[in-house]
Every structure is written in C-alpha cells, then in structure tokens.
Design brief:
It contains 13 helices and nine strands. By secondary structure, it is an alpha+beta fold. It folds into two domains: about 160 residues; about 160 residues, Beta Polymerase, domain 2, CATH 3.30.460.10. Helix 1 crosses helix 8, helix 8 crosses helix 11 and helix 10 packs antiparallel against helix 11. The longest helix is centred in the last third of the chain and has 23 residues. The chain is globular, with a radius of gyration of 21 Å. It starts with a helix and ends in a 9-residue tail after the last strand.
Length: about 375
C-alpha cells in the first residue's frame, strides 16, 4: 500500500474519533455558561479551556460503550487570590459550593481531590462529555516556571491548582504547555488551513455560516492527527494488556511529538511523526526522563522498569501495524488498522477497492453506534 494511502487511513481513523463541530460548540457554550453562573452567584472566576480541546488533539475516550464521554479540561481562575495570602480552600470552596448546591448543576456535579466535574448526559448519537473544572490562581512568579531553561517565555501562564484531601496548592503550567504545542504546530497547520476549514464548513451541517466562523481549534494538522492516532493506539494497547494504570499520560505523548517536530519539514506526514515518536520513545529507556518544556519537572519521575518496558512494547506494536499496512495483505492491513484504532473504527478506516474505483476511505457519520 502506498504511503499516501496509509497516511489517509491514519488521518481518517483519527477523524472518526474526533469531537464534532456541534459538540465543540456545545462544550464551549457550557463552560461559558458555568462562568456566567458563578459570576451571577458572587464567585469571580475567569473560565478558559485547556488540554486537548485547546491543542486540537481531542480523542473520544476509550470505552466499550457507544456513548463514551469526552473529557474537557477547564481552568477556573480566581483573580485576586495569592498562594502566599490564601489557603486553597478559600479559592476553591466557593466554586464547589455554588455548583454542588445549585438546582441547575447539583445533580450533574461530583468532587474529587484535583477538580470538580460536571457530566452532561450523552445524546446517544455523538456521545456526552464531562467538564473537569480545575480551580486555580495565577502563579507567574513560581520558581519552577521562571527557572525553566527550555522555554521561559511561557512562564506567565503558570498557575497553582487548589487541591483538597489534603488541602494544598499544586503548581503547574497546563496553559503554557498547550500554547507551546500550538506554537510548535503552527508551521504544520498553516499550509492548507483554508482548504481544511472549508471541508469542516461543508460537513458541519449548518453549525457555521462561513469559513471565518470555523475556529482554528477544529482544524487538524498532520502533527495533531499523529497525536490523536497515538492516543487511541495507546488506549487500545494498554486496555488489552489490562494495565491501563501504566498508560503514558497524554501530556507525555504531546511533549514527545512537540520536541521531535523541530527536526521534521513543514510537509511532514502522520507517518513521519509516528516514526519519529518510535525513536524518541525508545531513547527514553536510556535517559529515563522527559522534561516538561514549560515547567521544571520530569514527566516520567514516577515511572518504573515496567512502565518503560510497556512503552517499548507499545511502540513496537504500532511499528508492526504500519508494516502490515505497507506490505501485508488487505486482511492483515485491516487487522493492523483495528490494532491501532479498535474494531469500531479500525475496520472502517480501511480503503475499499472495487473494480471500477480507486482506493477510497469509508467515513461513516456515526461509527461508535455500530
């Protein structure tokens, strides 16, 4: 199979697991509504998206259910609070109390140590989603952000999260990491963006009125598609091994892809990114560390021998799957696609050949309902 065909299969498979324009707009309206609700109840907070919805690498969570929920990370930033002058509960308490005690959100909301989650019921077609609301405060002077030697220009994005049980401040820089990835991605995303957004407009079924209305956050470059492919392949591999607790965090995948992007040309394909990922991931078994580019921390600090061994096994499986796509029979290629994406998507991302037509990709509108 030609490289262009393989790349098309990988991109289409990732697209089948992506958030739809209608769900993207629904998620946006809901987290904005949370901000308005808090403001109307005397809680001053700046609401902003974070994580995969900001980096454009959203993937439907792995689940045996047809209505798996997307997880949307949201920062609830409390202006006027300081790490030195306020306890975490002072910043987070009013947020949790307003949501848990309300008729509007109370039955939909659950607390955990790190965040508070609002779960929106699945509509049975596109699925549902959860807003993970992380209460935080600005922490621009945090030494772990300011002294980060790799990309100090992102230090101003640093925050401290209000965690509980036990109550404590947790320093982090999620927005800085997202912006770092978005900036890295720009040279891969800029070429062809207008054409891709035109396709999104055509397929959005009236969600947007013009190309200008289509947000860049819904556009996908080859770099972003590579992250999506890796995230779903990770979920499939570790689920089959029954070691989901050992699966690499999404930020680990994002950082590796971001780092290796420096050595790839502007027209790099999904395959180019995957092959670079194989090399970088295996090198981690020697270095045993991966620095967060925007915060002074080792993302693999808690990893042990088994974690690194599984990482190598996973990358070897993806590489074998790519080999089957390149050189195997159509049956083996279909199995390879399923190994990457799972049976609900993998078999439907394969080209279908007829006597009268060249290979094309079947893209059902609701693969997860089958």
């Amino acid at each position: 199979m030609k490289e262009t065909e393989i790349n098309n299969i990988l991109s289409k498979g990732a697209n089948l697991l992506d958030i739809t324009p209608s769900m993207f707009e629904e998620a946006t309206s809901h987290y904005k509504a949370v901000g308005e609700f808090l403001g109307n109840h005397g809680v001053d907070a700046d609401i902003s998206p974070c994580g995969s919805i900001l980096t454009g690498t959203v993937v439907r969570p792995y689940s045996d259910d047809d209505d798996a929920y997307f997880d949307i990370d949201v920062l609830v930033n409390r202006p006027g609070f300081g790490r030195a002058s306020n306890a975490p509960g002072e910043a987070r308490g009013p947020v949790d109390e307003a949501l848990l005690g309300s008729d509007r959100y109370g039955d939909m909301t659950e607390e955990c140590d790190e965040c508070i989650t609002i779960e929106y019921v699945s509509n049975g077609i596109e699925g549902g989603f959860r807003l993970d609301l992380n209460t935080c405060i600005d922490d621009r002077e945090n030494p772990r952000a300011q002294t980060c030697e790799t990309y100090p220009e992102y230090a101003d994005y640093a925050v401290s999260m209000a965690w509980e049980n036990p109550e404590r401040w947790h320093g982090s820089n999620p927005r800085g990491l997202c912006q770092w990835f978005v900036d890295k991605n720009e040279r891969f995303a800029a070429p062809g963006r207008a054409q891709r957004k035109a396709r999104i407009l055509k397929e959005s079924r009236g969600v947007y009125a013009s190309i200008e209305d289509v947000p860049d956050s819904l556009d996908r470059s080859e770099m972003q598609r590579a992250v999506q492919v890796l995230k779903r392949s990770r979920d499939e591999f570790y689920h089959r091994r029954v070691r989901t607790d050992k699966a690499p965090a999404s930020c680990v995948i994002t950082v590796i892809i971001g780092i290796l992007s420096d050595d790839l040309p502007d027209d790099a394909t999904v395959i180019d990114f995957l092959e670079g990922f194989f090399r970088c991931a295996r090198s981690l078994t020697e270095t045993r560390s991966l620095s967060n580019p925007v915060y002074d921390e080792d993302l693999l600090q808690e990893w042990g021998d088994e974690d690194f061994d599984l990482l190598v096994s996973w990358t070897e499986e993806i590489e074998r799957s790519l080999g089957s796509l390149r050189y195997g029979t159509r049956t083996k290629a279909s199995v390879a696609a399923e190994a990457i994406f799972g049976s609900k998507v993998g078999s439907r991302s394969m080209p279908v050949v007829t006597a009268a037509a060249a290979p094309s990709v079947v893209v059902p509108s609701k693969p997860w309902s089958m």
